[in-house]
């Protein structure tokens, strides 16, 4: 039995393999979350698995989603908080802005409105400026 | 290790194929992988020490990221190897039986599900397409010509200069998001007709993926092997033309992990309507 292998012999440095050298995040999101579930003999407590999945989702998904869900334990979990929480806050803010923007753009069939954004931009700028000034 | 202490870790289900194709393949914990057959199905299994995979042990160990990574990679490499021989249905991580006979029973009991899913996934692979937005890849705002900065402008006050810089940074970032959003739409539109199905995964956090920038699209496409070349050509064209501040990454071929659920749903729906599945 031969499987068609259309990718063979091509040089595509930009493409990572789905094989054994695959990115860990790509592997985890597939083996943990996808695939057929059949009952094994070893019963793993579902709650534990859910906790585990949530834990990993925090790593896989963006930090802001978890914060929206009111979960912030990773900030106290030494195994998972590889960065200072200050970075998390900045990242979360950035994520939130991005997601809002994408949602707004997806909803609107028309191109995004320029004027409200410009106003928001100025507002945020001055706020950020004040914060930065204060922290000095 | 006596049989009493052994469990069978199950990786994936497939149509029967010569077991020699798995020669030398090691699974979780380095144990050799075997095929357990029932009718027109096989399940790839390997022995694992029961004491490492009983409820108690799993509960503790699944929280250990290093252990989890080792198991996940071993699991995936067996699924990948089985998939080299033909259509494959990956099983969820840590599906463990009290021996090969119990795994065979599972094949017997769940056979109809596996057949239905295999039928729908035969001749197809999964490809991953990700888009990143990376404002830091944009040219520094200072280097851009600044509007209104005429020759007679004179020196700007430090506060004003600061605010202007911040504003330019914001603008650059907003531009990047806008560009990335447009790119997501373009990629989705370009690939929709080249794949049988598409699944969105959650965007990956940079802490786990180690990738620079913000992951804004993390999609998996189920592509017929006959159309894979065309799919990759289109993705490559999109990738090569990705605007500054954005990045497209492709991964694959993957066993069709992300599509087992929808294949099963489709088969169940077809069966409910008296179809052949």
Labels describing this entry:
heterodimer; A: 5 helices; elongated; disordered N terminus; disordered C terminus; B: 277 residues; alpha+beta; four-stranded antiparallel β-sheet
General description of the model:
- The complex is a heterodimer of chains A (136) and B (277).
- Among the domains of chain A are: 26-71, no CATH class; 72-109.
- The longest helix of chain A is centred in the C-terminal third of the chain and has 23 residues, at 85-107.
- Chain A is built from five helices and one strand.
- Chain A has helices at 24-31, 46-60, 63-68, 85-107, 115-134, and one strand spanning 15-16.
- With 136 residues, chain A is mainly alpha-helical.
- By secondary structure, chain B is α+β, with helices and mostly antiparallel strands.
- Chain B has two domains: 3-122; 125-147 and 154-262, ACT domain (Alpha-Beta Plaits, 2-Layer Sandwich).
- In chain B, 42% of the residues lie in helices and 24% in strands.
- Chain B has helices at 50-53, 55-61, 65-83, 100-121, 158-192, 206-209, 228-240, 260-272, and strands spanning 6-14, 34-38, 41-49, 88-97, 124-133, 197-200, 214-224, 246-254.
- A four-stranded antiparallel β-sheet of chain B has the order 2-3-1-4, sandwiched between helices.
- In chain B, β2 and β3 form a beta hairpin.
- In chain B, α4 (100-121) crosses α8.
- The longest helix of chain B is centred in the middle third of the chain and has 35 residues, at 158-192.
- Chain B is elongated.
- The model of chain B has no long low-confidence stretch (mean pLDDT 88).
- The chains are: A mainly alpha (136), B alpha+beta (277).
- At the A-B interface, β1, α1, α2, α4 and α5 of A face β1, α2, α3, β4 and α4 of B.
- β1 (15-16) of chain A pairs parallel with β8 of chain B, so a sheet runs across the interface.
- Chain A: InterPro entries: Gas-vesicle_GvpA-like, GvpA, GvpA-like_CS.
- Chain A: Its main location: other.
- Chain A: Residues 1-20, 106-136 are annotated as: Disordered.
- Chain A: It is found in: Gas vesicle.
- Chain A: Pfam families: Gas_vesicle.
- Chain B: Residues 136-177 are annotated as: Disordered.
